[in-house]
Amino acid sequence: MTTFDFLLQGLAVAMDPMILFYALIGVTLGTAVGVLPGIGPALTVALLLPVTYGLDPAGSLIMFAGIYYGGMYGGSTTSILLNTPGESASIVTALEGNKMARAGRGGPALATAAIGSFVAGLLATLALAFLAPYVVKLALVFGPREYFALMLLAFVTVSAAFGDSTLKGLTSLFIGLSLALVGIDQLTGQARLSFGVPELLDGVEVTTLAVALFAIGEALFVASQGNVGVETVEAVKGSVWMTRADWARSWKPWLRGTAIGFPIGAMPAGGAEIGTLLSYATEKRLAKNPEEFGHGAIEGVAGPEAANNASAAGTLVPLLTLGLPTSATAAILLAGFQQFGLQPGPLLFATSPQLVWGLIASLLIANVMLLVLNLPMIRLWVKLLTIPRHWLYAGILLFSTLGTIGMNPSPVELGMLLIFGVMGFLMRLYGYPIAPVVVGLILGPMAEQQLRRALSISQGDWTTLVSTPVAAGILLVAALALIVPLVMRLRGKGAVLAQIASDED
Amino acid sequence: MKHTLLGAVFAAAFAVPAFAGDYMIMAPAAPGGGWDSTARSMQEVMQAEGISASVQVQNVPGAGGTVGLAQFASTTSGDASQLIVGGYVMVGAILTNESPVSLADVTPIARLTGEAVGIAVSASSPIQNINELIEMMKADPGSVSWAGGSAGGVDHITVGLLAKAAGIDPTKINYVAFAGGGEALAAILGNQVTVGISGVGEFLPQVEAGAMRMLAVSTAEKWAGTDAPTLMESGYDVNVQNWRMVAAAPGLSDEQKAAVTADIDKLVNSAGWKSLLETKGWANTYLSGADFDAQLAKEIEATTAVLKDIGLVK
Lengths: 505, 314
What we know:
The complex is a heterodimer. By secondary structure, chain A is mainly alpha-helical. Chain A has one domain (3-504). Chain A has 21 helices and 2 strands. In chain A, helix 2 crosses helix 15 (353-374). Chain B is α/β, with parallel strands linked by helices. Chain B has 11 helices and 10 strands. Chain B has helices at 2-15, 34-48, 66-75, 88-96, 130-139, 154-165, 181-189, 200-208, 254-269, 271-280, 289-310, and strands spanning 23-27, 55-59, 82-87, 107-122, 145-148, 174-177, 195-199, 212-217, 241-248, 283-288. In chain B, strands 1, 2, 3, 4, 5, 6, 7, 8, 9 and 10 form a 10-stranded mixed β-sheet that branches. In chain B, strand 1 (23-27), helix 2 (34-48) and strand 2 form a beta-alpha-beta unit. Chain B starts with a helix and ends with a helix. The chains are: A mainly alpha, B alpha/beta. At the A-B interface, helix 3, helix 6, strand 1, helix 13 and helix 19 of A face helix 2, helix 3, strand 6, helix 7 and helix 8 of B.
């Protein structure tokens, strides 16, 4: 039987009304938990696991996968409307998305996120069905040195993409990198900068920092301005739906986001964050009007949102073909498989083809359901912005605090949220960009660990970093991304670069 | 009317935890790991077997369980309905993190399950058996890179013990710690490292699929599901089993402790628990009372010695 036959057979399994029902529950729950900061898809699936012992394995696994996709999508809604990213994968969406929402373009932002998620989910799920065995081979080529090269590439491209001033951007980035040092060093088990506080041993939680800097900092800023000189937020300006121009500007970022998110999601140490960051940087570089970035560019929502959902499908590649969980949610999905006596891995496609193809087919269906469920909701969601500001921000404060405590019930976590909130306020007051802080916290530890792992394996030989074609190639691209703009600027060439430069310096 | 109704709901909500036999189990790890699945398995069986009417699981992840342990020890004193899951990795983490809170600050009840640590290479590796691996380490300890779980955890300790038993300086071992099992597996399968070390259960599916070769297991006897030799059989005096335990709150009276122990005893002897252990591939290593206390003290002492040898504890 060919892959195509299997997929058709899988669709037949997934069309069963009960299975459809499970998929519906999954995407609804997933969207709901994605909207709430702190409660992620991993936690939800873990909580539901014991409930599903008595259920049909196909149905409950499909429900879990629906939660995963739904959660990836739901996180974008609060990012865009309230500037409170619910998951670390939707942090990048907040950057442009919230600016759009405040300019009365919340509707198109939500729509491009929803449709982009759908397009990416669809393409990536098809890629999962047809390319999984090849993608996984590629993913296994990536060892510590290749990951380190990838992290460097992300650093170079991303740090250039943020902020109006290079100095301020770098300052923010280094604040993030310093925060990233807090906690137990993974390779030696020694505590760093934890000052005897046990909660600090695991480092600073990315979502806590993001919610504090984005949401709390902003609420404080708004409060400090009083009623003087407050910019008026228009809930809806122009159409709630995407205009022809929005479509024209969105479709390419969707495709590029998918192409970036899927393979990185499939890598065991990739994850959704890197994909969204790289997609944002790519869109900014390729945009016709890069000066719009930072003020609500639709490309900056479309690309990362597509990357985010494509990476969710990407994560299923190593899970289904090798039994390798590469994200928290995937680890729990794996536990779910094992609960039903199924061992994901090279044999799963052979031993339970019906289940695997049923799962893949119902992901396609879940994807359609998400779109149908969420597009009509947009009109309702944007109403949130018509709530008077003082109520809205009081609500945001409550919402972020509850979310943080819900995720990690400890006074220290709450204290961190408040301290970082004040930090976010001060940074905003003095015009420092906040995104690089979060980027530093996400990428810093990954880069450090991979570099040290690579050096440990090679026993301290630095040439190991360029000893494989993949690693050397990525490093070369990173070097070019750093040097070419410098050289071109020195030669005073290129109107485009002048534009970028005026934006950056 | 509305207020009375609300009042009744609140009263009911507050009254629930007061019923005897209810338990709150803390899993001091993120959802999905070994401690979490132990806690959730306990929850499932205790409810299904009618040992407790309502069991809840709370995840407090971080730092090899020491974050959860610290919170548990400071907030539950005297409350017999509170339980915490832990194990070998926690013993190591308490030592390496210099945690101010240790297992002496809670009331250990029983050891529940055990699992062997497996040593495996990818199928395409030239290493055929454990002796070849040891020879490579003897020639140049640094040239053999080990992929395993967190530093100071049971995997790391096993490598340290093996090196010592083979007469190799344990401080020279090249141990590369990976946070999640998945990433370590990928590094082994992709031949990024020489050899991998982890719970046998993580390797077995890969071995069955022919992607990996199990070189040895760490327990005194062979482990179900693999015919790999034990380290003892191969001539290295190493016997390690990763165990998981349950502890109760500090400051319990003797009666309270006995009641909790009786409930755990019922759990372990139930048919539901036995069939669950089988599906999970965990061995039943139930040990409670004074025997467990003595065993625990011995394990802590031995672990301290190994971690000092590896250079993780001063």
